[in-house]
DNA sequence: ACGATATAGTTGATGATGTCAACTATATCG
DNA sequence: CGATATAGTTGACATCATCAACTATATCGT
């Protein structure tokens, strides 16, 4: 409850903060002979090439009446010309004149400079983190995380640490596992990375527009010729229920089969319910279970196998 | 250069995006009998308890003239009363009336609901990431990372992974070190975490308002009774040059001395110039050097010692 | 103490913005 | 074909934004 209140306060704080930032950026526009609305309308027309009044109104959140008058003014300044629509003669076609194109380019340049001014005081790492944060906010708030490209790819520098970080935090939040777990998976990833290339191994990161949505890897099972082990399957909570886990497991199974493995095993805990469904879906069967106390919790470990 | 252009475009994209978000939130205000400016002014007065016209103007980025007239209107509506200032009689004191307080509470509630509406579709992890991203953006763009509390504290769940992640990325960017390095430090952190509590060891995270600015740890040196080893000193680029590295090393030295260690050693690479200065400043002396090829680079390893 | 200078606030003027409602012309659909 | 919806225009009016002029008070250096 209190968390909720704090969260809302933090969001409002950010809104006030960013309102000011946007205000600062827009102040720069006042050195032109155009008002802010005019600039926004010109930018929108320029971006779309040609558009209509009602589109502008809805896109920029302005009143149709206001758009109408504003366009008149821009026509008078020779920045814009309006022709009746071809197919629908209620709708008029709004385009930039040659002069309007120039203005558009100029305004765009000024906006670039203003945005540049935000980035300028930051070093490379700061810029990168700023942009990642912005991208994340847009993704979270646009509320449609389903569309967009999801790619399975190898891990990059720093991502073993990232995967360790995320899983440690998640399983601590969800199941209370302690730092013993974090140390264990740090070692598991280190072992993966330093293992010899021959019996084949592979790790996949599910990459959603630069953000890590999940991961898994396959290594040769210790001391069992011809057997591959599936390890460290995880999907970010925000990306669950979209089949990413199944995609990762399928990819791993295909890899193991192609690499010549004849069996596949994995170890998991029975509290990881949704993971179990994925393993079942991929054809794994439960071999045996074993109670143990690890990561500060009483667990029921499960060994699953799959014949390839 | 192209990166730069992309970055600017991304910032502008976010600005447009968030302009719309703010617009949506503000739309809710129109169900009240107050205009947006009035609501903002009331909110600002309510937040501050009492204020002056010029403060409002500068805080909200409005014209003094406009604030003046707006306040007149609010006085007419019995939301606000104005008394001449006590110490400075140019400055007037602007306060909310009882009715104004009510309005303030009501508007505040509406804003809370609007902000709540942003959070509502998100799950816990999504909310957390949204808020972290917002905090990060505020910190990066407010451009004053110097003020604020810096604390040295133990690590929390997930932070071993985070430290691995950050250092792998940083040293890759700065020196081209490959994932061999990431695997090594993942193992080093895992070893730290699973080491026995007796001979004493400790890890500190430099925490700046919830963000990790740097870290270091002390462990007993392998096979050398009475000797402590300083390991994994690092400071985030954005926080460098503020003495955080020295603070971490000092803390580590004090800890080692109090824990009864008589010597302290560390291993570093000569390319890490600023770290070297910190070690020298703390009294470490260079014992010997040794060339080696690690992490995909030709390195010159240095062993430093300190008598406690 | 005094004058130059700065600051807080008010007032006037003017154009732009935001909002409603009324109106025309065209499109769409049963 | 008529009911209904949509695109755009126009009028009316209150608020917003901006500039400049003006008064009253404070501050600072000399």
Automatic annotation (TrEMBL), chains A, B:
Keywords from the UniProt entry: Transferase
Stretches assigned to the HTH marR-type domain: 1-142
MF-aspect GO terms: DNA-binding transcription factor activity; N-acetyltransferase activity
Matching InterPro entries: Acyl_CoA_acyltransferase, GNAT_dom, HTH_MarR-typ, NAT_camello-type, WH-like_DNA-bd_sf, WH_DNA-bd_sf
Domain N-acetyltransferase: 163-308
UniProt xrefs under Pfam families: Acetyltransf_1, MarR_2
SMART domains: HTH_MARR
Statement: the UniProt record of this protein carries the keyword Isomerase: no
The organism's place on the tree of life at top rank: Bacteria
Alphabetized PANTHER family for the sequence: GNAT FAMILY N-ACETYLTRANSFERASE, LD18367P
Protein name listed in UniProt: MarR family transcriptional regulator
Species in which this protein is naturally found: Devosia geojensis
Species classification: Bacteria, Pseudomonadati, Pseudomonadota, Alphaproteobacteria, Hyphomicrobiales
